[in-house]
Amino acid sequence: MNTVSSVRLNIISAIYGNLPKEVNITKIEFEGPEIAVYVRNPSVLADKGEIVKKIAKDIKKRIVIKADEKARKDKKETEEIIRNLVPKEAEIVNIKFDDELGEVLIKAKKPGLVIGKGGTLQNKIFYETYWRPVIVREPPIKSRTIDSILTHIYNETEYHAKILKVFGERIHRELLFKDRYVRITALGGFYEVGRSAVLVETPESKILLDVGLNPSVTGGEKFYPRIDIDQVRLEDIDAVVVTHAHLDHCGMVPLLFKYGYNGPVYTTAPTRDIMALMQLDALDVAEKEGRPTPYTAKEVRKELLHTITLDYEEVTDIAPDVKLTFYNAGHIIGSAMAHLHIGEGTHNIVYTGDFKYAKTKLLDKANDEFLRVDTMIMETTYGAQEQEGREEAEEKLINIINGTLNRGGRVLIPVLAVGRGQEIMLVLNEAMKNKKIPEVPIYVTGLVDEITAIHNAYPEMLSREVREAILYKDENPFTSEFFHRIEGFREDIAQGEPSIILATSGMLNGGPAVEFFKTMAPDSKNSIIFVSYQAEGTLGRKVRDGVKEIQIIDRDGRVENIRIEMEVNHVEGFSGHSDRRQLLYYLRNLSAKPRNLVLNHGEPNAIESFRRQVEREKEKLGLRGTKIYTPQILDSLRLV
Amino acid sequence: MNTVSSVRLNIISAIYGNLPKEVNITKIEFEGPEIAVYVRNPSVLADKGEIVKKIAKDIKKRIVIKADEKARKDKKETEEIIRNLVPKEAEIVNIKFDDELGEVLIKAKKPGLVIGKGGTLQNKIFYETYWRPVIVREPPIKSRTIDSILTHIYNETEYHAKILKVFGERIHRELLFKDRYVRITALGGFYEVGRSAVLVETPESKILLDVGLNPSVTGGEKFYPRIDIDQVRLEDIDAVVVTHAHLDHCGMVPLLFKYGYNGPVYTTAPTRDIMALMQLDALDVAEKEGRPTPYTAKEVRKELLHTITLDYEEVTDIAPDVKLTFYNAGHIIGSAMAHLHIGEGTHNIVYTGDFKYAKTKLLDKANDEFLRVDTMIMETTYGAQEQEGREEAEEKLINIINGTLNRGGRVLIPVLAVGRGQEIMLVLNEAMKNKKIPEVPIYVTGLVDEITAIHNAYPEMLSREVREAILYKDENPFTSEFFHRIEGFREDIAQGEPSIILATSGMLNGGPAVEFFKTMAPDSKNSIIFVSYQAEGTLGRKVRDGVKEIQIIDRDGRVENIRIEMEVNHVEGFSGHSDRRQLLYYLRNLSAKPRNLVLNHGEPNAIESFRRQVEREKEKLGLRGTKIYTPQILDSLRLV
Predict the structure, then answer these.
(1) Domain A6-67 falls in which CATH fold?
(2) Closest-CA residue to A135 (of A560, A577, A525, A460)
(3) Which CATH architecture fits A390-574?
(4) Which of A415, A629, B476, B600 has the most C-beta neighbours closer than 10 Å?
(5) Partner residue opposite B635 with nearest CB, options A201, A206, A637
(6) Of the partner residues B178, B230, B632, the one whose CB lies closest to the CB of residue A638
(7) Interchain CB distance below 8 Å, B221 and A179
(8) What does the note accompanying the cofactor annotation read (chains A, B) (predicted)?
(9) Measured between beta carbons, which residues in chain B are less than 8 angstroms from residue A183?
(10) pLDDT digits over A579-598, tens only?
């Protein structure tokens, strides 16, 4: 027998006490952070939406009214009603039912038309069928990832509903301790870039912010964040929060499930999709190279069933004393800053994750408005470095491309599948459209393609210009005629006519980019252009740093000597990270100034140099009272 | 079945391989940090002691040869042999047997005569009886504490032997982790004085350095160090190390046993005895005042059976990757600095505990020679303050006493039962002997008396002068005719003829000192002289700070208003703590300079002020490369 805690009792009383009796509540379920009220007569509430809103506001919880199973219309009938109500132009491609949660998934090419103005049509669907509509966009470029994720979740509705209830009961458990403290512990990504992970600890709860891998190694102890210490007991972790889909921030989340973690993962919808894709791809690559993998696809599938997606600026209870709110971080699609509100205002932490404090073609700039920040954990990747401005960077890129094409060479741009790839596509598309570079084929290979499809599923998360081009102008830059999608490596292209090749991975530590590099490097007509950060220890870093010859062990174990004759360039202005100036602007412009500023996600010289800079400019930045911390891995800081 | 680990296998092989076969080894036991080799024919080794020493040196372990049970002589016969071998002047008072460990306890007034020159007689006793002699001093003032501790341990030989084996197996377990880290976590006594506790953590082991209580409160969360956090799991703690017997360093050790700790406590012999006495006394006082106690006498008794006493400068394995060595700290009798040697030289920590870097009448000054120190955790109680010099302090004390006695007043000196009490006794005894103060009665009350008896049991731990006076000159200053021992409070003395009263507790937070103070305070002829540190929140602190009226709630719950008319003085030069200058000298004179200096055990202004001072004088102190840390409670620092 479950005992109902008084926290939950209070919520239940508020709902019973304030809903009209005639709705006939049949059960109240704590489904993750949401409170689902199942009723026999939802129609009673059809024009009384404000009652539910008021209760939600009073008890500061997310309440969803659902119809009792017995009240819901037959599925076939429901499908007919939906198809009749929704205009043809919405182009519904799929309808699926979740019996457990009483939801109907409607996938459409124009989801806005299913939602209706201000949600009116969505509402109508509910009151005419008693199924709660969940509306999803079918992107113009088909995404296999999203399809298989949704199929997986809708195949496991029973497990999914059950686990949500487990989360819900845990989130709404009783507060046990009178005493208050808040500690953070550096588990990875401090004084280094890679394997990001932070433990946030209160007497009541424990939360992991990111659980990444170290991209500069493929195994050994430095591959993992320090989730092995006793302080991190997986059964005590209340929530894992993932700020974006790069593997250095999410690559070890499935490992938690392998070792028995059974709790939720909070992230945005695009991060969920891309994260799963990146994890599965990493498994593929490791398998092909005969390396052991820290987890298998089974754990990725479990992770997906345990993931709860949140929108930006949606306040969510994730533990009895912690509320999480995501804000746009401008780094890649779906990237988020995590704001943790602890206790009744005991402490507010902002963990920036990776962020860009400047507008890019792809994304809006990172959020700088918070009601309260006591401690800010801030990335410092480029804390020691100023990048070119955007326009300068574009000009430089265009010049290098023109120079190379003019001498009959080919341009290799290694790109991170996520973010930089799409940004460079937008830049190249515009430049070619405006005749700033000659019209040669732009080959896109590796994961970039599938990731681009996912971008198209979430246009509302992209910059205004791109969003509008996709949604209203039917001028989708990602489907432009200049782009040619290819599979993996193609020798004919590497040695063929002048062209531009966008290939993953961005640090030359895997993917078709490595094959292209090996073939193209000895030809001095060619160019390679790095457009993203190159971590210590990666092949990309060595090449960028000017090494003239490189030994590569191929898949058969043979050592190849590669002479690098091609032109090597890097254009940093496209970075998804803020440079030193942008980091400083960010601190200056923050609406609320932190008492503690914790610098992470930077190599030692970046962190030290940025720390000194901030110390010097404290007054100017409005940080007079702020303490600056630069913890090492396994340092813990008590914040309260 | 126990499996024998390869660590233990290697030790066993080395012993079997190097001892002559004829000794006939019957078993090898891991008895705590010692390896006991039980043999049928010990006589084979009678003149081959160097073989055993060589093995011990080779495998870096403490080896003890014991006789197999069957080989040992009958107890009655053994007792006779001992009494015949030992000269009468040794004055044996007691002989007890431990069948489990094959030891015979010989208590004598002159233990040196039982040991014999270079241990020859002790050795002879073993080879003639096949019982290992353990020799203990019967002090000239009888100590009930020591008697009852030894009786307790010798009543529980079976449990004691069993638990030592449990410790032994745990200490000599396999190393499991390739990876190395060392972290310390501040659990109490950081940015404050009281509830000292530090957690030292490696992947292999966890050690608690001190587990004290906060003397300025009697309950509530600030009473305890933060041993309640998840990081401190009692079943994972390998060892508790107690640096000295003041309750702010050891007052919560029994609580660990209450909550399931089952491991060893390492400390010096006088610390063990005084610690138990102080803990039991605190229980008594709480009971009389009707306060709940965090533990009971049962846990103190368990603690005693789990305590392993070490001499200064004796290197001891306390965990598979940690060796502990104690050094004289000069603070009170038995007080130690704890040196932890971690891994094969991975890291060396010195935790100073409370220390005095100056010679006192009672003790030698703290040790400043270490082979290696990477991290020093140093107390900073007087980091912001310079005390009078010793001679100045004595003069001041004598002047105040003379002034008071001359005007017909009485002098109250609240003393910590341990340390300051004995030091002041030595000063007063000398001054009176030399006629610097008139011959009035010196009343000694409270715990001081019993503690003084314990001092007499361990003269080897006192300063050279006192040691020699006790051992060779029969001029024991503690038994001087000037001292009058009384029980508790005596109104006739408080209001009687001019006299000097030494009474516990030193901070007026309990003990007969409070009663004397209440009676003596309103008379302006009287004086009170504080000679030790007064913690924030104690009555002593308020009085020292010059409050003119005080409300005291007596044992019946009545509020009494006490007007303070007496002369209030404090003489800090007797402190058992180093003052700012001594702390700086200590750093300058250290034979090995730490890379990390962690300041603790000080109020915030003491720590901050001392930190700045050290920063300023880094060059001069030879600490150019040293990083200074001032952690807060619940901060963790990674050292390696």
Answers:
(1) GMP Synthetase; Chain A, domain 3 (3.30.300)
(2) A460
(3) 3-Layer(aba) Sandwich (3.40)
(4) A415
(5) A637
(6) B632
(7) yes
(8) Binds 2 Zn(2+) ions, which are required for nuclease activity.
(9) 634
(10) 999 999 999 999 999 999 99
For residue A596, the distance in angstroms to the closest alpha carbon of chain B comes to 14
pLDDT at position B555, please? Answer: 67
Contact A231 B233 (CB under 8 A): no
Q: In this structure, which topology does domain A71-166 adopt according to CATH?
A: GMP Synthetase; Chain A, domain 3 (3.30.300)
Q: Where in chain B is the domain with CATH 3.30.300.20?
A: 71-156
CATH of B71-156, one of 3.40.50.970, 3.40.640.10, 2.40.50.180, 3.30.300.20: 3.30.300.20
DSSP secondary structure string, B348-369? EEEE--S---S--SSSPPPP--
Looking up tokens 């030290």 gives A608
Chain B contact set for A635 (CB, 8 A): 635-638
Structure tokens at A367: 């959020």
Question: Is the domain covering B6-69 a CATH 3.40.50.360 domain?
Answer: no
Task: List pLDDT tens digits, range A36-52.
Answer: 999 999 999 988 889 99
What average pLDDT does range B19-34 have in this prediction? 94
Class of domain A174-385+577-635: alpha beta
Identify the closest residue of chain A to B220 by CA–CA distance.
A179
Interface test with B, best of A634, A637, A640 (most B CBs within 10 A): A634
Q: Give the model's pLDDT for residue B344.
A: 85
Residues of chain B with CATH 3.60.15.10: 174-385+577-638
CA B144 to chain CA centroid, nearest Å: 18
Task: Flag whether A484 is marked binding.
Answer: no
A205-256 pLDDT per residue, tens: 999 999 999 988 888 889 999 998 988 999 999 999 999 999 999 999 999 9
Question: CA A623 to CA A617: how far, in whole Å?
Answer: 8
For residues A216 and A194, the answer to whether their CB atoms sit within 8 Å is yes
First-to-last C-alpha distance (Å) of chain B: 37
Chain B residues closer than 8 Å to A608 by CB: none
The Cα of B469 is separated from the nearest Cα of chain A by a number of Å equal to 51
CATH topology of domain B174-385+577-638: Metallo-beta-lactamase; Chain A (3.60.15)
Assembly ipTM: 0.72
